[in-house]
Amino acid sequence: MADTTTDTRITQRIEQVAHLITQPHTNHVIASSEGFSYLVDRDAIQALHDAIAPAFSIIRIVSYLRRQDQFAISHHQEGANPPVKPAALLHGHSPTALPQTSALQHQYLDYETRIGLWGDVFGDAAMILRVYDRATLKNGDSIADILDAVGLPDLPVIDAKDKNVSMGMVETKLGHLLHGIVTDAHIRASVQRRLPMTERMLPARADARAFLAPYIHGNRRLNTRFAISPALDLFSDDFSMFPEQATDQWTESSANTAIRACAEVIEHLASSAATFTAADYAAAARALRNTRPDIAEKFLAAAQGLKPQSDRFKAKMVNRNHSQTDTATKDRRAQKRAARLQKAASPSP
User: What pTM was computed for the model?
Assistant: First the structure.
């Protein structure tokens, strides 16, 4: 059964994207987003086509394909970054160079089916497919290569720094582990910033070959359909970039580096909060209870964290707030009664 909430969200996003694409009053519009690659449903692709086709006389779909094992390693590494990434939804957070396999991941890496759907909807003639390899990109740059692919090689390009650059083994492995433990992305980022660059986290050569194996025949059929590459199987069969033994396991040195970074962040957080006591946090919670209950709840949690031995601590703090309110109300009533008694006891003029 389809997830109607997800379907509605996808439809809304397609409408928003289509609106942006069709708005500019110019002869050429280039819309580039990794998000397009997550459209793996024919109906969604058809909806995008139907939304933008009336605005253009020519539409071209440009896609760069990377060998599945190499892509999975890079994409899985991206998921180790502090903010939650779509890559993590595909690959999870296994602290290994190659991610654990899943049905969703297979759907994404099945280029024959996924890219084929775009050809089915927009037409094979509209597809511009290239193998991603910096050695063959124009000027070694993906932007320059895209402009060349769509026939706009002279369009000015603003220099920009590379993003999603490779991380070292310690940063990647620890990043995946932290995602399963630390919910605060700022804390995860603080730990990773303290890590030095180390060697890349790579799988064993045999494991990389095994990961690619399920996709070889599909890649070949995709290449036959679209004539993408002179290589029969679409991609190079060179696995020399991978070591005989994986480099994704802890050593004494790498483990110490990771532990040291975690300890530094713990020390920083502890010293920053050292002057606050459980009573301070509880007082802040009481002060914000009526105006910002969401923040008050966080202060209460912090207070309770400093006194975990007391199961009744939170209730006690909340009740104390009620008690103080009740006491203040009683005091005001007592003052009013005293004033009335004093007035009644005073002699009439």
Answer: 0.76
